[in-house]
Write a structure and sequence with these properties.
The chain is α+β, with helices and mostly antiparallel strands and 178 residues long. It is 46% helix and 26% strand. It has 2 domains: 95 residues, PH-domain like; 69 residues. The protein contains 3 helices and 7 strands, in the order βααββββββα. A 4-stranded antiparallel sheet has the order 1-2-3-4, covered by helices on one side. A 3-stranded antiparallel sheet has the order 5-6-7, with helices on one face. The model has no long low-confidence stretch (mean pLDDT 82).
Length: 178
């Protein structure tokens, strides 16, 4: 099917990658960074004022600073990894319309009508909830159109919500055609 005739009044929702995980990790990184700075200041103070700091006390301070530095290094590694993943997909936009959706990434725009979907590939992820045990949920990985075009959705989108919206749109289109 050629491009959808998209009427702006038909737009239902727009979905973009969120950056809240990056901000939470950055805020969590501030506490160990503060503790590392404090332990370095205390260590320098002990060494410059010539206090009677025993070898065990200095070793404890060095160990404390080293432990915090290792933890901070690990945390910053996760932060950099998460930022790189988000940065690659920050321009992705999925727009849900009454008769289909558009998936935009960088310079490409792919349009797909609900009845143009041939197959949907799923993958299983684990969802953690506050007041219930974690559970495995099947979410959309990619969409295969009837002409063979594959639309691979970015992992930084809210795939759990999009799975529900896309399957509902596809089912509604099938009901209209029957």
């Amino acid at each position: 099917m050629p491009d959808l005739d998209i009427n702006p009044s038909e737009l239902r929702s727009v979905h973009r990658p969120t950056s809240w995980r990056i901000w939470i990790m950055a805020m969590v990184s501030l506490a160990p960074l503060f503790l590392l700075g404090l332990s370095i200041v205390l260590l320098i103070e002990d060494l410059t004022h010539g206090r009677d700091a025993g070898l065990s006390q200095l070793a404890t301070r060095f160990g404390f600073a080293g432990g915090i530095a290792l933890f901070l290094t690990l945390l910053i590694g996760f932060l950099i990894s998460e930022t790189r993943t988000w940065y690659r997909t920050r321009t992705v936009r999925l727009k849900i319309y009454e008769r289909g959706f558009t998936y935009e990434e960088q310079d490409r725009r792919q349009v797909c009508a609900w009845n143009d979907i041939k197959d949907i590939t799923h993958r299983t992820i684990r969802i953690h909830a506050k007041h219930s045990p974690s559970r495995r949920v099947s979410v959309i990985r990619s969409i295969v159109k009837r002409d063979g075009t594959v639309i691979v959705l970015a992992e930084t989108l809210n795939l759990h919500k999009l799975t529900k919206l896309i399957t509902e749109g596809r089912a509604a289109a099938e009901r209209r055609n029957v």
